């Protein structure tokens, strides 16, 4: 038996709490070819170059047949078309523009900005809920419910349906972080019910549109038309999933990092605007998405003396790039005062995260409230238990003790 | 507060436009316009935007952001002396001059610093002057550049440098004083080329756009609802102003002597696409047409006579025929100056007229003419925002560094323009190309990348609403990759076969290339173009 490759060790659950030294090993070589034919890249510049390389594909149909089973599981069961995250241009660009029309600039530039007070209100209510306790799981009480409520609001699910809707979302996003067979089954059931619900909601909004995203998606025809049938459902599911576990992890990893760095926590309480740079550094230092597992090349690519072969799976280890000393000075230092902080937490190039502005605001608001309102917070377990997934890395639970909650 | 975006780096991720929508606005797929002086209520949102920009292209005033720590200066003997007690004089207080001054202080220069500028205003940004300032979206014509740090300089604004004496190392000023220096930075840039007939140029209603004052008057006139605007020259500035008129609903005629717009910078193939877009937006574009004369009544512009025999009634004419390098003040100095500027080595040190490099005179920005190793060490003259910044940084570093610690300026040129909702970016040196091939996307949808090749080698690329791909070509150009691209890509064009790039056949001074190859000899006063095929020339128009 040969020794496990750095990537095999990274994937190994035993290393979930501290993968960083393994990333350093990974960066010792620009490109690795795993025994199964997968290529793995961990340097900042190399990843960034590949994310802007027109030979790189996100479409699973570009994998050679022998690697088809290496493609990550589809977002939704059944015959749904690929959502935009798994497509290439020109289809990707068209789907993304149609989706963005309902989400941001240039068509709806104010949507996220105007949502800020709503976000603030939601997180205030959630933190209010901690009053009277001496300890709480920050994942279950804040990090998890906050983004679900936000996306529910954004999509335009009526408040009376929100609990039902959120009950379906839970098994769907959970299966992603911890894919066990039971979870996968629960997810399939939830999908069916969610699909039926969304279909009805879409019908209803077609006749009686509101300011929400679903109404926009089913009524507003931009120059490129609208999403129909499977494309619509695939996009809605993607928005739910892509915006979920990721944001949960950012808030949870963020709070964990703050409790490990009391000076930063203190500054977050007192310095105005500190949360802005803090969250940027958290995204770099403790990113939610550790790697992009869904790429392949449509032509052979020479990189760092190795050929990334056409049709083989290609994994880009964003979290390793974020700690690459060739690009980032003192990368293992958690330093919110860094200037020119560039990182790969949201990817780069044409698939750059659609929800990044929302995720940043959510994390800024949630962490600021926790810092300002929890009196004397302490970690109960360090390291906390981690989710199974090496891709969406974050704690399953983050139990924290505190001595009271300040009013908002 | 003040904001500037390095649009050379910007890839249109719109994070800024999401987070501070009153300050940053996306136009079309990826073109970004910004308000250079947002109100103070916008401060937190602007800081959010600046932190979130994935390529860190946003800059705000030092006072509004975290202080930038000085970088640790490399300790070497010669550099040390220059760092500590030298007298540095910067002539030309604009983008290159300010960037150099900030870099000097950042690198620990503690000596005296004098900034000499003939414009009365503090350094300001020019690109918005033909874009958001004219449409009125930016709140004022005040585009003063944000300050990254206090440069602690003696500012001599509103005073021109009139001569340079290299024997005594002094600069003479228009107010009759002399300033002595140990190191000099020449950053006097370019001025607008005026309409050649002085009496016609003096008519009220005839404008050029180079300065903030130019922009302010023009904006006023465009707002007053002129009957028709005539734009003379369809280079980048002319095309951008045509776009502004179309947006404002002002009737506009563009007269271009060449066969298409943007031909000097991007060639005829791309020029035709640009022509189509102009016409779709209702611009009366007349190619291969010259303006024969401008005619006025009581000192006011009334009509223009065109070489196609027509006469048009116009109230405003914008002369967009490129620039003239501000080197007259250096003419008696013995330095290697000519129509393409002041020649320097790869480390920004000026050459004298006999081709010897000087030790204490440095050059940066639009006025510099510098050899580029990637293009066979030929001298390039560039009028690019990004070049002014990177060259100024290298010049400043080298001014206070020992010879063991000097940097070469190796940046590949990158340029952008925003017009008719399209974001156009180019990298490399397209005008030297003999062929062009579309490599990605769809020309019909105006979302594509095209590559330029010279004798089978990739020398440039242009993206049309496809800027996120341009980095790839940037890298390939640095690697001297073959042309056409020898591999498959994910979004191939309908027709990717190479065709002639159609750059103009003869040297037209003052035409619209923004990067010009000016030969091998630093001391040439009249630069010759070195080409196997007849090539482009000119300057930004
Ligand atoms: C309307 C407009 C739009 C533009 N748009 C773009 C764009 O979209 N993209 C892009 O890449 N670039 C663009 N540019 C070009 C960009 O602005 C220039 O490359 C940049 O300004 C160069 O900076 P500089 O400091 O070298 O020179 P300049 O900005 O020209 O500054 C030189 C300064 O020196 C002063 N000076 C000259 N002679 C003397 C003297 N003897 N004594 C004292 N002072 C003197 C001048 O008055 C001026 O203030 C645009 C330029 C203009 C005018
Ligand atoms: C901290 C939170 C988040 C992180 C770290 C994150 C990270 C990422 C990354 C790395 C990608 C690139 C995927 C790729 O290149 O294949 C991506 C894409 C995407 N994200 Fe996010 N995301 C977050 C939150 C959100 C939110 C809140 C939403 C939606 C509201 C969202 C929607 C999307 C979508 C739709 C894509 C696909 C874009 C495309 O393929 O063009 N994300 N995200
Ligand atoms: S790259 Fe930066 S400056 Fe450009 S649009 Fe995106 S956030 Fe704004």
What would your notes on this structure say?
The complex is a heterodimer of chains A (408) and B (541). With 408 residues, chain A is α+β, with helices and mostly antiparallel strands. Chain A has a single domain, classed as Cytochrome p450 (Orthogonal Bundle). Helices cover 47% and strands 8% of the residues of chain A. Chain A has 16 helices and ten strands. Chain A has a five-stranded mixed sheet, with helices on one face. A three-stranded antiparallel sheet of chain A has the order 4-10-9. In chain A, strands 6-7 form a two-stranded antiparallel ribbon. In chain A, β6 (301-303) and β7 (306-308) form a beta hairpin. The model of chain A has no long low-confidence stretch (mean pLDDT 93). Chain B has 541 residues and is of the alpha/beta class. Chain B has four domains: 3-60, 2-Layer Sandwich (Alpha-Beta Plaits), CATH 3.30.70.20; 87-189 and 326-400, FAD/NAD(P)-binding domain; 193-324, FAD/NAD(P)-binding domain, CATH 3.50.50.60; 421-500, FAD/NAD-linked reductase, C-terminal dimerisation domain (Enolase-like, domain 1), CATH 3.30.390.30. Chain B is 21% helix and 28% strand. Chain B contains eleven helices and 34 strands. In chain B, the strands form nine sheets. In chain B, strands 7-6-5-11-25-24 form a six-stranded mixed sheet, with helices on one face. In chain B, a hairpin with a 4-residue loop joins β8 (161-165) and β9. In chain B, α4 (95-106) runs parallel beside α10 (385-399). Chain B is globular, with a radius of gyration of 23 Å. Chain B starts with a strand and ends in a 24-residue tail after the last strand. Chains A and B meet through β3, α14 and α16 of A and α1, β2, α2, β30 and α11 of B. The structure holds flavin-adenine dinucleotide (FAD), protoporphyrin IX containing FE and iron/sulfur cluster.
């Amino acid at each position: 038996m040969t020794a496990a490759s750095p990537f095999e060790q990274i994937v190994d659950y035993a290393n979930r709490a501290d993968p960083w030294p393994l990333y350093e090993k990974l960066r010792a070589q620009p490109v690795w070819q795993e025994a199964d034919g997968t290529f793995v890249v961990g340097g900042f510049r190399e990843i960034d170059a590949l994310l802007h390389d027109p030979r790189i594909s996100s479409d699973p149909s570009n994998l050679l047949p022998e690697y088809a089973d290496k493609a990550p599981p589809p977002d939704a069961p059944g015959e749904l078309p690929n959502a935009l995250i798994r497509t290439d241009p020109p289809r990707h660009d068209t789907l993304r523009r149609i989706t963005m029309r309902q989400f941001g600039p240039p068509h709806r530039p104010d949507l996220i900005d105007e949502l800020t007070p709503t976000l603030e209100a939601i997180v205030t209510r959630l933190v209010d809920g901690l009053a009277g306790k001496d300890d709480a799981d920050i994942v279950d009480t804040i990090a998890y419910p906050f983004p679900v409520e936000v996306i529910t609001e954004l999509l335009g699910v009526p408040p009376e349906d929100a609990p039902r809707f959120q009950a379906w979302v839970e098994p769907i996003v959970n299966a992603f972080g911890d894919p066990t067979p039971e979870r996968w089954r629960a997810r399939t059931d939830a999908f069916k019910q969610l699909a039926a619900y969304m279909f009805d909601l879409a019908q209803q909004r077609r006749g009686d549109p509101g300011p929400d995203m679903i109404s926009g998606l089913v009524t507003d025809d931009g120059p490129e038309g609208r999403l129909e049938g499977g494309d619509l459902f695939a996009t809605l599911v993607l928005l739910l999933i892509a915006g979920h576990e990721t944001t949960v992890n950012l808030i949870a990893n963020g709070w964990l990092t703050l409790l490990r760095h009391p000076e930063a926590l203190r500054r977050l309480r007192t310095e105005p605007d500190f949360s802005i740079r803090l969250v940027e550094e958290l995204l770099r230092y403790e990113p939610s998405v550790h790697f992009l597992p869904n790429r392949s090349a449509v032509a052979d690519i020479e990189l760092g003396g190795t050929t990334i072969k056409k049709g083989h799976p290609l994994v880009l280890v964003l979290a390793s790039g974020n700690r690459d000393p060739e690009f980032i000075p003192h990368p293992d230092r958690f330093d919110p005062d860094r200037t020119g902080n560039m990182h790969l937490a949201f990817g780069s190039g044409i698939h750059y995260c659609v929800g990044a502005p929302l995720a940043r605001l959510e994390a800024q608001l949630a962490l600021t409230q926790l810092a300002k309102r929890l009196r004397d917070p302490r970690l109960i377990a360090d390291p906390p238990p981690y989710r199974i997934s090496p891709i969406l890395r974050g704690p399953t639970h983050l139990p924290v003790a505190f001595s009271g909650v300040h009013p908002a | 507060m003040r904001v500037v975006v390095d649009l050379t780096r910007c890839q249109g991720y719109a994070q800024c436009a999401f987070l501070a929508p009153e300050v940053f606005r996306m136009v079309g797929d990826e073109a970004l316009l910004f308000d250079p002086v947002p109100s103070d209520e916008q401060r937190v949102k602007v800081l959010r935007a600046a932190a979130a920009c994935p390529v860190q292209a946003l800059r705000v005033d030092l006072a509004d952001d975290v202080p930038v720590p000085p970088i640790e200066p490399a300790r070497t003997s010669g550099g040390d002396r220059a760092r500590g007690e030298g007298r540095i004089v910067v002539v030309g207080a604009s983008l290159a001059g300010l960037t150099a001054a900030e870099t000097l202080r950042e690198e620990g220069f503690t000596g005296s610093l004098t900034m000499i500028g003939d414009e009365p205003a503090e350094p300001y940004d020019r690109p918005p002057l033909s874009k958001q300032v004219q449409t009125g979206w930016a709140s004022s014509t005040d585009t003063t550049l944000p300050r990254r740090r206090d440069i602690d300089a003696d500012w001599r604004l509103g005073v021109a440098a009139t001569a340079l004496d290299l024997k005594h190392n002094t600069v003479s000023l228009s107010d009759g004083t002399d300033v002595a220096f140990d190191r000099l930075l020449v950053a006097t840039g370019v001025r607008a080329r005026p309409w050649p007939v002085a009496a016609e140029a003096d008519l009220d209603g005839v404008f050029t756009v180079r300065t903030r004052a130019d922009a302010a008057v023009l904006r006023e006139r465009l707002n007053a609802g002129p009957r028709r605007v005539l734009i003379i020259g369809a280079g980048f500035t002319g095309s951008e102003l045509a776009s502004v008129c179309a947006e404002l609903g002002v009737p506009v005629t563009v007269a271009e002597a060449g066969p298409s717009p943007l031909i000097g910078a991007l060639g005829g193939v791309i020029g035709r696409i640009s022509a189509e877009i102009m016409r779709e937006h209702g611009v009366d574009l007349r190619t291969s047409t010259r303006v024969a004369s401008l005619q006025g009544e009581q000192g006011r512009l009334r009509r223009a006579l065109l070489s196609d025999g027509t006469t048009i009634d116009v109230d405003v004419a914008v002369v967009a025929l490129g620039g003239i390098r501000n080197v007259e003040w250096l003419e008696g100095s013995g330095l290697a100056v000519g129509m393409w500027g002041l020649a320097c080595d790869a480390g920004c040190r000026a050459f004298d007229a006999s081709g010897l490099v000087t030790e204490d005179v440095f050059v940066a920005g639009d006025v510099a003419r510098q050899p580029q190793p990637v293009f066979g060490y030929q001298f390039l003259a560039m009028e690019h925002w990004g070049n002014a910044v990177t060259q100024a940084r290298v010049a400043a570093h080298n001014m206070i560094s020992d010879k063991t610690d000097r940097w070469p300026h190796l940046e590949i040129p990158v340029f952008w323009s925003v017009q008719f909702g399209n974001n156009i970016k180019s990298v490399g040196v397209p005008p030297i190309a003999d062929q062009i091939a579309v490599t990605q996307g769809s020309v019909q949808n105006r979302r594509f990348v095209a590559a330029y090749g010279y004798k089978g080698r990739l020398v440039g690329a242009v993206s049309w609403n496809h800027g996120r791909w341009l980095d790839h070509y940037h890298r390939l150009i640095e690697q001297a990759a073959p042309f056409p691209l020898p591999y498959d890509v994910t979004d191939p064009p309908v027709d990717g076969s190479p065709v002639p790039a159609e750059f103009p056949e003869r040297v037209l001074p003052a035409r619209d290339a923004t990067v010009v190859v000016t030969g091998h000899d630093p001391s040439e006063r009249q630069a010759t173009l070195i080409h196997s095929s007849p090539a482009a020339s000119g300057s930004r128009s």
